[in-house]
């Protein structure tokens, strides 16, 4: 994405509005700190010699961020040196260590997307013995070799055996329910985006936080920052973002079943209609002209004359075997429905992706599921998981079910349960190939052979839909 220096001012403007808005709903945020897991990635050059790096890396490396004036509402536990360290282990380790040291001061815990925060929790699960050792002795893990971090941590490190014992005792427990509020007892909310593709993390975040409010504060992209949520304490399903008209020139392509080709004329920001869905089209100060971001938004209201949008989904994440087309929202709904059966086994789907397997005839949908089994003595059995396959099929659209039942052009849906930690490996793999930790999103559909090989090598059980889903010609939607 092209960008220009002055774009940083626009991003800064949007960031600067987040806390004044939050302050209307949550008081006392100036009396403590935010534990945010923020990361940079190493930079590359384009063949033409331009600097290329993820948008958030640009922001964290800018003077806007690095030399930001003191603001009691925006004090982070993570030192800049840790955020700016490109080695993700050293960066995460230091950020976690600082967050643990200041556990009493932490008032909010966050990351850019929900997946980033869960990655931090997983990191704590894997590294608490070493982290608590460091806190007990006031020393720094020898794996942290970055000189800037070492220098700044020399000011932070002190032996605190009581704190170390407390954290170690809690982390050693098998049950991590509510771990966030146990370790950071003054946390008022989690600051993470859980709208759109991130919605599936809500149950896992609720589990680890004991149901703390989830604040989705802003809506942005590499291309352009779009707007903010003026009621950040609203439930994730009710979140709307107010577009800031000064971020870019916004136009909207009507979307949905009733928008015929003729009706698909671009609509200006002020002319969108409540209840209608649109695809976002932007013309940016950095040079994109009528660029289709790929997001579908629904108008929910107006703030003065600025429309407010519910994020519906990102376009074009499709599974297709025959004439069926399954998008991300449908797949998400199907996974949600199926995972309800798992509730009585105290189990949830923490991560999933899918794949249209056309090597078999007929082809079929393959789901890769990573499960969080809270009670290992009550692991859902083959019958339950094959039932999940069927519930997923029942939840998919009528074209899919017609292909399954009437045309026999799609085979039974398959769930491959993968080992715990597999999706983290997938993320590591993506990061090793250049993805950004902050902006990483689990692909909801995979086609890249090495990724599928990785997933397949971690499969622990395989389950197929035991019967045909329901379908009659009248039920076509
Ligand atoms: P990236 O440029 O990689 O950071 O991705 C930007 C995309 O992430 C957007 O176009 C959206 O599809 C998605 N996204 C960003 N913010 C939100 C949000 N608040 N809610 C839902 N999806 C979001």
UniProtKB/TrEMBL annotation:
<dbReference type="Pfam" id="PF23571">
    <property type="entry name" value="GH3_M"/>
</dbReference>
<dbReference type="InterPro" id="IPR004993">
    <property type="entry name" value="GH3"/>
</dbReference>
<dbReference type="InterPro" id="IPR055378">
    <property type="entry name" value="GH3_C"/>
</dbReference>
<dbReference type="InterPro" id="IPR055377">
    <property type="entry name" value="GH3_M"/>
</dbReference>
<protein>
    <recommendedName>
        <fullName>Indole-3-acetic acid-amido synthetase GH3.1</fullName>
    </recommendedName>
</protein>
<feature type="domain" description="GH3 C-terminal">
    <location>
        <begin position="330"/>
        <end position="448"/>
    </location>
</feature>
<keyword id="KW-0436">Ligase</keyword>
<dbReference type="GO" id="GO:0005737">
    <property type="term" value="C:cytoplasm"/>
</dbReference>
<dbReference type="GO" id="GO:0016881">
    <property type="term" value="F:acid-amino acid ligase activity"/>
</dbReference>
<dbReference type="Pfam" id="PF03321">
    <property type="entry name" value="GH3"/>
</dbReference>
<comment type="similarity">
    <text>Belongs to the IAA-amido conjugating enzyme family.</text>
</comment>
<feature type="domain" description="GH3 middle">
    <location>
        <begin position="241"/>
        <end position="314"/>
    </location>
</feature>
<dbReference type="Pfam" id="PF23572">
    <property type="entry name" value="GH3_C"/>
</dbReference>
């Amino acid at each position: 994405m092209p960008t220009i220096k002055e774009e940083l001012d626009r991003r800064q403007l949007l960031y600067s509005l987040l806390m004044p808005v939050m302050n209307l709903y949550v008081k006392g945020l100036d009396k403590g700190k935010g534990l945010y897991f923020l990361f940079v990635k190493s930079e590359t050059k384009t063949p033409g010699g331009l600097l290329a790096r993820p948008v958030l890396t640009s922001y964290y490396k800018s003077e806007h961020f690095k030399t930001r004036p003191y603001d009691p509402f925006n004090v982070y536990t993570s030192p800049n040196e840790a955020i700016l360290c490109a080695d993700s282990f050293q960066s995460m380790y230091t950020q976690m260590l600082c967050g643990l040291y200041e556990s009493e001061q932490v008032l909010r815990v966050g990351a850019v997307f929900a997946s980033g925060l869960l990655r931090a929790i997983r990191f704590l699960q894997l590294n608490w013995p070493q982290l608590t050792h460091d806190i007990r002795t006031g020393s720094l893990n020898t794996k942290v070799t970055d000189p800037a971090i070492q220098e700044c941590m020399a000011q932070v490190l002190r032996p605190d055996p009581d704190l170390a014992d407390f954290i170690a005792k809690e982390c050693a427990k098998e049950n991590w329910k509510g771990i966030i509020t146990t370790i950071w007892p003054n946390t008022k909310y989690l600051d993470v985006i859980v709208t759109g593709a991130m919605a599936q993390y809500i149950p896992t975040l609720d589990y680890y936080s004991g149901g703390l409010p989830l604040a989705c504060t802003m809506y942005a992209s590499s291309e352009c920052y779009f707007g903010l949520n003026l009621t950040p304490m609203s439930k994730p399903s009710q979140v709307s973002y107010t577009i800031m008209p000064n971020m870019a020139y916004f136009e909207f392509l009507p979307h949905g079943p009733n928008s015929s080709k003729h009706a698909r004329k671009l609509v200006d920001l002020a002319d969108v209609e409540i209840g209608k869905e649109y695809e976002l089209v932007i013309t940016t100060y950095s040079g994109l002209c009528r660029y289709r971001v790929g997001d579908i938004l629904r108008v929910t209201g107006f703030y003065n004359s600025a429309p407010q949008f519910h994020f519906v989904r990102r376009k074009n994440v499709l599974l297709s075997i025959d004439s069926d087309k399954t998008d991300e929202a449908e797949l998400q709904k199907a996974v949600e429905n199926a995972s309800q059966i798992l509730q009585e086994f105290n189990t949830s789907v923490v991560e999933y992706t899918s794949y249209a397997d056309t090597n078999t005839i007929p082809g079929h949908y393959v789901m890769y599921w990573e499960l969080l089994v809270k009670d290992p003595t009550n692991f859902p059995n083959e019958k339950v998981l094959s039932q999940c396959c069927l519930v997923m099929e029942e939840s998919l659209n009528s074209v899919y079910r017609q292909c399954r039942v009437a045309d026999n052009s799609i085979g039974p849906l398959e769930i491959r349960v993968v080992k715990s930690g597999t999706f983290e490996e997938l993320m590591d793999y993506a990061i090793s190939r250049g993805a950004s930790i902050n902006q990483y999103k689990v692909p909801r559909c995979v086609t890249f052979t090495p990724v599928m090989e990785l997933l397949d090598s971690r499969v622990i059980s395989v389950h197929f839909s035991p019967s045909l889903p329901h379908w009659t010609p009248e039920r076509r939607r």
